[in-house]
Amino acid sequence: MSVILETTKGDLTVDLFIKERPKTCLNFLKLCKMKRYNFNRFHHVERNFLCQTGDPTGTGRGGESIFGLLYGQQAKYYEAEQVPVLKHTKPGLLSMVNVGDNMLGSQFFITLGDNLDFLDKEHCVFGEVVEGHDALLNINEAICDENHIPYQDIRITHTVILDDPFPDPPGLEIPIHSPEPTKEMLDSGRIAADEDINDMEGKTAEEIEELIAEKEAKARATILEMVGDLPSVDAAPPENVLFVCKLNPVTTDDDLMIIFSRFGKIVNCEIIRDRQTMNSLQYAFIEFDNPKSCEDAYFKMDNVLIDDRRIHVDFSQSVSRLQWKGKGRGVEFVGGKAFDPNKEDYKVKDQPKREQSKRISSDDHPKRYAPQQRQRDFQPRDQYRGGREHREGRDGRDRREHREDRDRRDHREDRDRREHREDRDRREHREDRDRRDHRTDRSDIDNRGRRGGERDHREDRYSHDHREERHNRDHRHQSDRRERDHRERRRSPDRSHKQEDVSAQKRIRRSSSPKNSHRTKTSTMES
């Protein structure tokens, strides 16, 4: 037997276990027929555990069985059926809520997890969801408070009975129309089920874009905190520090300090250098004593020409000065404090002595926190790498190295040009030689062709004369031999026969040899 539960998250089609739980199925079907489940909300939802409903009051303490409607308060609950045992083994099972002493009313729940065996002895399974598991997943993903009450109402809007095998008990009056929900039933203090939650309502396009950008930045900051790049989601770079890049390698700290000092007092100016070679990495950080001077320098100095280089100026996004103190203890600024317009003690020199004693000194900080962050201390100008003399010597060395690199580069370019010219000359010489050889070979072929034609004509004529002479000689020899044999036969018959046998044998031998095959054929034809 099937029942359709129409909810605000989708429809659920339920099959009831009529044979195993006849009394419970009778109670559930008649309550659906009386429209007692209409507008009941799911007042308790635990993810991957269960979702509970069936209480018209929405508190989890109300509801009564169909027998209470027919026979009064003494029959408000009825005793649960225990045989046969049906277990809570999978999601989508419907089970009546035990209100105590193995008594059941109208409340029921739907399982959202697997293997909930500890519910078997207390609650009574009477059906399962066969269609609408996507709606069940939507209910499972509802956002709830600490008491497992959804922030937005999830309600049963209507119930449809597809088949009811039980006859209606006497005195049961079936309503023709669904009853209207009461004000107390709808006033749950939560977001209404049909209310559209729109954070962008009533905002302008600029405000919406700003809100979206803020959410995206918050999401990126959360990811950076998860991977360890940020000490905290709320960590923000200081507002009084400028980032300057695309510097000329010969530009020094003093140069930048002199140029940017016209916008305000500079607390620290540092060009970042390689740890080993101490060569400039062509970017720097400039810290002013207030954000207003930093903003003025940002608007005036971007794309300005310094030492034949157009620099780029932007607000610093570095949080290397932030030191994470541990989970739940926040962060502290290494080398200073974040700027607060209401206070004047954000700098190191203006802090009380007690706070300075808590901080790590600039000399000990690189030793203790070298594995965690890049070594870059905001130190006073006169203590940076030995002072002005060290910087001047280092700058002179940088300029010498720059000139040497330029000379080596020029020498390498000259050598490449010479090699290119030599290769081009060799290639042109080789092409001229190949053209001369080609013309010579072609003239030789023509001369050889003419000489070869005359020689072939002479050879053909000589071979023809030689064949005629050889043919005439063989013909004369055969005629002489026949005359001699004829004379001998007339002179001696026996001798002539022997001579003929010997002559025949000789002719056979000559005819069998390859050289005389042609001659034998010719003589045979003549005879």
TrEMBL record:
One of its GO terms (molecular function) is RNA binding. CDD domains: cyclophilin_RRM, RRM_PPIL4. Keywords: Isomerase, Nucleus, RNA-binding, Rotamase. The keyword Plastid does not apply. Residues 240-318 form the RRM domain. SUPFAM superfamilies: Cyclophilin-like, RNA-binding domain, RBD. Belongs to the cyclophilin-type PPIase family. PPIL4 subfamily. Residues 10-161 form the PPIase cyclophilin-type domain. It comes from Daphnia sinensis. InterPro entries: CRIP, Cyclophilin-like_dom_sf, Cyclophilin-type_PPIase_dom, Cyclophilin_PPIL4, Nucleotide-bd_a/b_plait_sf, RBD_domain_sf, RRM_dom. It is an enzyme of class 5 (isomerase). Gene3D superfamilies: 3.30.70.330, Cyclophilin-like. It catalyses: [protein]-peptidylproline (omega=180) = [protein]-peptidylproline (omega=0). Residues 340-367, 374-472, 480-504 have a biased composition (Basic and acidic residues). GO terms for cellular component: nucleus. This is Peptidyl-prolyl cis-trans isomerase.
